[in-house]
Amino acid sequence: MAAIRFENKWVLITGASSGLGYEMALQLAFSHKANLILVARRAEKLQELKETIESKSASKVKTITADLSNLDDIDRVIKISLEDDNLFGAILNAGITYFGSHMELKWNDFEMMLQTNVTGMVRMTTGLTEYFERTQHPGGIMIVSSMAAVLPTPYQAAYSGTKGFMLNFITALSHEITNKNFSYTVYLPGGMQTEMTNNDKFSPLKSWLMPVKQAAAEGINAFRKRKATYVPGMTNKLGAIMSGIIPKGIIIRGMAKTYGNALKK
Ligand SMILES: NC(=O)c1ccc[n+]([C@@H]2O[C@H](COP(=O)([O-])OP(=O)(O)OC[C@H]3O[C@@H](n4cnc5c(N)ncnc54)[C@H](OP(=O)(O)O)[C@@H]3O)[C@@H](O)[C@H]2O)c1
Fold first, then answer.
1. How many A from CA of 180 to the centre of ligand 1?
2. What domain of life is recorded for the organism (predicted)?
3. φ, ψ for residue 6 (rounded to 5)?
4. Residue 207 — very low, low, confident or very high, per pLDDT cuts 50/70/90?
5. Which atom of ligand 1 is closest in space to residue 210's alpha carbon?
6. Which atom of ligand 1 is nearest to the CA of 115?
């Protein structure tokens, strides 16, 4: 299958109001000349990003304010994105985490994470895949999972579960589709410098976090090359390789110590 060229193509990005989604939107517009449909809950952030992109490039930008933990909102995003029959790609990036002892995670917060990271992602993937299967139009979807899908992460136990679901779900689904010009990519970043990690709990781990510009560039490149899965950065790649050699229990015990200590600081 030929590598993707994003020029003049419409790409949907969820979670575009900050962090990785925001940065991928900038790079897709400025470096790849894509047109964008940007989705998140914070309308003013999306509007600012639209104005930045449209004032400095020829890319067109639509914004949709939506809560992707809500099925009606997701269905509205799918409907708007497909109504002009020209959607080429989607980056399903919106997600939330919880960093701390699992026993202190409130049930409502767990359900919110499950609805956003799992239920919402499955609903979006299903709605968009139905379109690409029915039309047989070329395109692709990139799902932003995490290294936590490969190395289950203590003190982010429920989050790791949601990210592992993404990896297994998409990997299995990719063998069901019939469209020969369509691909899924599961992106597996490790820690990144974004709003998600910009708090006291993560500050002892700051030196490990990848700059978001690099994470965005590597993710877009993996999507462009239609990689089935992709881990960015040398340290993360090494971690993924080691997890296939050293018993996972040993690595995860080390992670438990590091993350547990970070939470005590
Ligand atoms: N940061 C890391 O260390 C790291 C590592 C591996 C993987 N990841 C993954 O990377 C992705 C992006 O995260 P990030 O680090 O860029 O975090 P971020 O800066 O907190 O961005 C998260 C984005 O998701 C959106 N979002 C969250 N809940 C939403 C909802 N219910 N409806 C609509 N949009 C929602 C947020 O927008 P609004 O608040 O405006 O709705 C925001 O735009 C996530 O899937 C995350 O799990 C992050």
1. 30
2. Bacteria
3. -85, -10
4. confident
5. 3
6. 31
